[in-house]
Amino acid sequence: MKRYAKYVKPYLSAFIIGPCLMLTEVFGEIMLPKMMSLIINHGVANHDSGYMIRIGLCMVLVALVMAVSGIGGAYFSSKASICFTSDLRQDLFAKVQQFSFRNLDEFSTGSLVTRLTNDIQQVQQLLMMALRLAMRSPGMLIGALIMAFAMNPKLALIILIVIPILAAAIAAIMMTAYPRFGIMQTKLDKMNSGIQEALTNVRVVKSFVREDFEKEKFRRNNEDLQANSLRALNIVIMTMPVMMLAMNITTIAVVWYGGNLIIGGKMQVGDLTAFTTYIVQILMSLMMLSMVFLQSSRAMASIRRIDEVMKTDIDLTDEHAAQKDKQVTEGRVEFRDVAFSYQKEGAEKVLEHISFMAEPGQVIGIIGSTGSGKTSLVQLIPRLYDVTEGEVLVDGVDVRDYSLHNLREGVGMVLQKNVLFSGTIEENLRWGKEDASKEEIRAIADAAQADDFVTSFVKGYDTDMGQGGVNVSGGQKQRLCIARALLKHPKILILDDSTSAVDTATEAKIRECFRTSLKDTTKFIIAQRIGSVEEADLILVLDDGHIIGTGTHEELLASCEAYQEIYYSQRDREVSA
To answer: Quick check: 200 pLDDT over 70?
Structure first.
């Protein structure tokens, strides 16, 4: 719980004032039955209307104070709980943003969304309920017990018999409910992941006419969540009937025993009326406590899931970087006997014995079959993953000795999966350089062969992108992503198969831009087409995580059998086409 204390401190006054106002309301609730008994015992019995009016006015005043206290208590409790969880959600999101790619592999996207939304909401509901009831319920319980014993100790013993039985029942319900709530949240994760996947890829679903399959998959996930939710909530449903049964049995016992006392002249009618109210208050306070405990049972399952994220060790940091202030100034890249595995221990290596040097301004082409390790190799340069063995050096310095910010600021990267965000085209391009002028943006877009199609839109650079850039074609999306990377003016530019959706003429113009506008930038180009890399200063041929050929296009045609096979097979397809 120490982890969460920092979220309380900024709103400590609300955390204190809310429960205190609730206690004020409780004091009024405890006093009202006693005042009513005085009216019955003295005012009504003695036909003293003046006495009844005086006590009645006092009751009205108490009721007004209770109303103000109740409203204030609810306000401060809501403020404290909402602000607490808002800050927690902010830190949880910030933690996820710090995750390395390997950390992200441990959680599904749907699970992280659930933890940031539904799980946080469960904590908020618990806090709100606790601040409203955690002081109110014990206060009412203790106050009503004191008043009941003050009126008739023997009659009050009835409630002492009921309380342990109810406590045992509530404890049993909580112990059963807690694991079921954890399972329910896991099922919610699964459903959210399915929803996200189906909606993100809805065009693929429609193109393959798989709507019925997706609906059936969602139905199974939805019914699974429904069944587990009912299984958890069925336990909660038992709470109210158990409490009401106990309340009614206790009330009957009190009325029966108290009625005999009144008949025997040992108790006044007003006292029995007040006593019955106190019994109801005691049982209602227990019911409210049980609601808090049950909500805490569900919230604790959510807190455990939040803790899993917050306690995750970030396996890729710059905490021990030896040269945090150093920036990438030249763009020289060297791999020294690098090996890499996506798993930390004992897993098969996807790269092994990788060594080469890229001088500033050179174009490095990387080619190879699917799964040969091309993307894995370039992801080591901006340190999206850490090497398993060996070293990756930028400007002669191990990438682990840079601060992550400075290293990645010096690297522009267009990933294999092109991603645009909601917002305008201009806002997307400004990811590369936030303070870029409109002229600079347009010049870069022109270099990436994007300006023509952007200006053809009615709103031009103010055109809104759909989610993920769904209202532009694949080739247009690639060119916008290239422009975004170019706007950084990076010393190292990585293009991971980023021109596959553009025609060869457009690609040739983009390569010409690289030779002129980015002549001092080191370019890494992963491509499937040899034509995309044949002019490179150095071409790496990868196969099964190993470099099986290095050299220029002409050198590889003369010496590398795998490169020859790729080249001639592509040329034959072009001729036949």
So the answer is: no
